[in-house]
Amino acid sequence: MTAIGPVIVDLVAHTLRRPREAARRLIDFDLPMEARWLGLLLVAVVALLETRIALLFMPSDQQAAVFAVLADPWLGVAFQILSLVIIAGAMAFVGRIFGGQGVFADALLLVVWLEFLLTLAQAVQMLVMFVAPPLATLIAFAALGMFLWLLAHFTAALHGFRDLAKVFVGMVASFFVIVAVLAVLLAMLGVLPPIEKV
């Protein structure tokens, strides 16, 4: 039986070098749906732990309310899971609207893998933060860019699209829809401040 560690390391490297091939490789694993949901739960918990650790070293006046929610033991995990499910749903169903053949189960798997990569990047960022804070900020922007770049390639691989520019445009449109949905959820949770009337 192959050890999981070397497989993960190889898949991380493969993802950064050839993201579309890596996406197809992930899909070809044909993991059961239970494993995909378990993976979603695990990355959400890891992201929560990293957020809580980051808040320990952040001045209280810089701790936005949204970070407090993400660090909450109950709301944080639920919010992370819901956010990733929404992204996977948009990735699958918007792509199908434009003629893609991808399904939600595979989109969920790819999004879980992307979130896992983000947790790795955030771990590196926290380590660098103690040595060179400005560099940690650059790593945060690089991680965001990596996420968007990989998401575009993964979406193209999921649906068999060739034109990456069209995929990116679809991502931008979906992004605004997702932000609107999450803003409503945050407002319902009391995280966003009420809009003051002029």
Topology of helices and strands:
Blueprint: H1 4-17, H2 19-28, H3 33-56, H4 65-71, H5 75-97, H6 104-129, H7 133-159, H8 164-188
Domain Yip1: 14-184
InterPro entries: Yip1_dom
Organism: Albidovulum salinarum
Quick description:
This protein has helices at 4-17, 19-28, 33-56, 65-71, 75-97, 104-129, 133-159, 164-188. It is mainly alpha-helical and 198 residues long.
Question: Which structural traits does this protein have?
Answer:
single chain; mainly alpha; Yip1_dom; transmembrane helix
The number of helical segments is 8
Strand content: under 5%
Q: Fraction of residues in helices?
A: over 70%
- The CA-CA distance between the termini, in Å, is 66 Å
On the 0 to 100 scale, the average pLDDT is 83
The structural domain count equals: 1
As a whole number of angstroms, the C-alpha radius of gyration is 18 Å
Note the main sheet: none
Describe, in plain words, how this protein is organized in 3D.
The protein is an all-alpha fold and 198 residues long. It has one domain. Helices cover 79% and strands 0% of the residues. It has eight helices and no strands. It has helices at residues 4-17, 19-28, 33-56, 65-71, 75-97, 104-129, 133-159, 164-188. Helix 1 (4-17) packs antiparallel against helix 2, helix 5 packs across helix 6 (104-129) and helix 5 packs antiparallel against helix 8 (164-188). The longest helix has 27 residues, at 133-159. It is globular, with a radius of gyration of 18 Å. It starts with a helix and ends in a 10-residue tail after the last helix. Residues 194-198 have low confidence and may be disordered.
